[in-house]
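We include the pair:
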Amino acid sequence: MPHTPFPPAHHRSAEVPEEGARLTVWVRGTVQGVGFRWFTRARALEIGELAGFASNLSDGRVQVVAEGARGRCEKLLAWLRSGDTPGRVAGVTEIWDTPRGGYEGFDIR
């Protein structure tokens, strides 16, 4: 039997495009005045193909909104929870939604 470079169709994994998501996160703790938003932006750019922003809130929290493939958003969320962030994270609350669009790149607000 001759060698074929491609496996039979029943052995090939179908590449299914990853579902888009919108992740909104509120991070509390000592997260303002420590470069948290800038590091969050850098991490989002490192993960790639995420759009959104990081913003200081008047109550001392940082809000992060990211849109992109769900797996990429999950990587950002895991980093926000990792303890490997600037400052001291006391808690992270997130909600998931469908993407709304309207963002270009990842901004600091």
In short: The first strand starts at residue 20 and ends at 30. The domain at 20-99 is CATH 3.30.70.100 (Alpha-Beta Plaits).
